[in-house]
Amino acid sequence: MRNEIPPALIALSKEIPLVFLTGDLGFMALEPLKEGLGNRFINAGVAEQNMMSVAAGLAYSGLQSWVYSIAPFCYARPFEQIRNDICLNKLSVKLIGNGGGYAYGSMGGTHHALEDYGVLLTLNPFLIFVPAFSEDVLPIIFKMGRSSKPCYLRLGKSELPKDMSAPSYSAWRCVLPGEGSVIVCMGPLVGELMASLCFQPVETRPELWLVTEMPLSWETIPEAFLKKLSKSKKLGIVEEHVAQGGLAHHLIYVLIKNNVSLPAVFHAHAKGYPSQTYGSQQFHRRECGLDAPAILEAFL
Amino acid sequence: MDNITDKIRIAKKRLLQMHFEKKMGHIGGNLSALDAMMTLHHEVMQTEDKFILSKGHSAGALYITLWSLGRLTEEDLKTFHGEGTKLPGHPVPGWLSEIPVATGSLGHGFPVALGIALGWRLSHKPGHIYCLMSDGEWQEGSNWEALIFFAHHRLPNLTVLVDCNRLQGFGTTQEVASMSQLQEKLAAFNLKIISVEGHAPSQIKKALDNTKGGIVMLNTVKGAGISFMENRMEWHYLPMNQAQYDQALMEVEKI
User: Fold this and answer.
1) Where does the pLDDT of residue A300 fall: very low under 50, low under 70, confident under 90, or very high at 90 and above?
2) What is the structure's pLDDT at B21?
3) DSSP-assigned states of every residue in A225-268
4) Cβ separation A60–B111 shorter than 8 A
């Protein structure tokens, strides 16, 4: 999804005066953006706390500022700068964290982002965007740019099955209809589920929904999803994020608060490093039961 | 500069009164910074300029400075540290243009000021940013990140002031972190640095006029002007009792 960032931000810069800061990252991806933005593309160096505060100052000066780094260096290292300099001052800074969940695989735990949106959702009024497909990036960039609120974009690697096309962007999407129960997923992992479920008969397979934006509100949950939920014996929630503060916690809270009767709930989520060994993104997903076969076996 | 000296004397008395009435501490660091803040706001800053108090625990001195400019009223000052106030112990933003951002956690004001200065330069906007830091604050790593950025980007529309009173929360800057030679450490970054007497308005003004894009080291005294407070760490925290307040007022009158 990184490659979608330069054309999207260059297009947005025609509409909104913006400045882009990177924490010394973006080789083989952000060069077109550097060329396109000129002196408004700033390599702030390996100094994420300063970068975040500078971004806040730039926003105060009237320029919309975008900050890019590997996800944990974007939300965890400079957390107080996000809390104080961006949120307390109500400044419109946009964060882009590359490598959501276990995307950095065998690079090790320092590079994984397992609690990013949960942490940032504690800061009012952060908006979270977790694209599932490369095609989601452009509409999300414009949505973030047109919002006055601070936003976080969690980038991953699109896993859209080869013979399928990405559904047009929406905060909630039914990506695969089914007459069984219902599964809600966040992030690129949905592609793996789509690939596994698409060959199963529609009469028995679960219906697969995709959520891309948080925080959730009752008003934004589609009627069709609620209708489906009311007929389901099970609700599956799948996310490459720790359980605490993730999609499941937020969704169940909103549903209960609005008197929705819940069926049995199954939650597949990141569990850290159960074996204390490291490997690819798929290795970590398997360890947590976050791969499609494990999810479907547990759910069905 | 006689006029500014009178204004500072009045401001210092009002600062003491405000802290005494609310039984609030942090008076030592407020007194070390007040002369510079008053000189800066009354003698140097123009309408389009901004000031960021990175050492947010000297909020009292900032409020009094803004009161001396007519930007805060007596009624405002009476709410200091009270319920429903906009004048808490560390500055909060969003209600007065002279308080652009929240400060209090150290190591934030300087990098935010850098961002504003850079944004103004990119947008070809006029104006100068002044940022007042403490010397102990330089133990925060974010400031060294900011210093690297400042030295690299060469922003002539930013001036950093450092209140070098050499006392911090639980010791001297030398005892805590071997940082009494702060200026020598900063000088390694090849920025213009001027060191001045931090309680002499004429020297402060001259330094600020000649240090655009650089750093002014203010040699100050914690609790300046009050004999029993000067260079004593406890006045980072303690409120004054009636006898101490009376004596402090008397000493300020003699300035």
Assistant:
1) confident
2) 96
3) HHHHHHT-SEEEEEEEEESTTSHHHHHHHHHHHTTPPP-EEEEE
4) no
A120: CATH: 3.40.50.970
CB A17 within 8 A of CB B123: yes
Average pLDDT rounded to a whole number, residues B229-254 = 93
Give B-chain residues touching A60 at CB under 8 angstroms: 100-101, 112, 115-116, 119
| Interface check B149 vs A, CB under 8 A | yes
pLDDT score of B25: 86
Same domain membership, residue A149 and residue A114: yes
How many of the other CB atoms lie within 10 Å of CB of B70? 7
User: Judging by DSSP bridges, how do beta strands A207-211 and A172-176 pair with one another?
Assistant: antiparallel
Residue from the list A40, A45, A60 with its beta carbon closest to the beta carbon of B116: A60
Cβ separation of B142 and A49 shorter than 8 Å? yes
- One domain for residues A140 and A181: no
- A241 and A136 in a common domain: no
Binary contact (A17, B123; C-beta < 8 A): yes
State which residue of chain B sits closest to A93, comparing Cα positions. B115
pLDDT tens-place string over residues A272-294: 999 999 999 999 999 999 999 99
Can you spell out the DSSP letters for B12-58? HHHHHHHHHHTT---HHHHHHHHHHHHHIIIII--TT-EEEESSGGG
Write out chain B residues lying below 8 Å of A49, CB-based.
Answer: 107, 111, 141-142, 145
Chain A: give the shortest CA distance to residue B102, in Å: 6
Residue A233 belongs to domain with CATH number:
3.40.50.920
Nearest CA in chain A to B124: A61
Q: Is A17 on the interface with B (CB under 8 A)?
A: yes
Task: Grade residue B255 by pLDDT with cuts at 50, 70 and 90.
Answer: confident
- pLDDT confidence of residue B237: 87
Q: What is the tally of structural domains in chain B?
A: 1
Identify the domain containing residue B242 by its residue range.
Answer: 2-253
Residue A235 pairs in a beta bridge with: A182, A265
- In this prediction the ipTM stands at 0.95
A150 plus A177 within the same structural domain: no
The pLDDT value given to residue B1:
55
Contact A58 B116 (CB under 8 A): yes
Last residue of a domain, one of A155, A189, A220: A155
Cβ partners under 8 Å of residue A41, min gap 6: A19, A20, A22, A30, A33, A34
Answer whether A39 touches B (CB < 8 Å): yes
pLDDT at B233: 87
> With an 8 Å Cβ cutoff, is A82 touching chain B?
no
Q: Indicate yes or no: CB of B101 within 8 angstroms of CB of A56.
A: yes
pLDDT at A23 over 80: yes
Q: What is the pLDDT of residues A124-139, one digit of tens each?
A: 889 999 999 999 999 9
Tell me: pLDDT of A18 over 90: yes
* B155/A contact by beta carbon, under 8 A: no
For residues B100 and B136, is the Cβ–Cβ distance under 8 A?
A: no
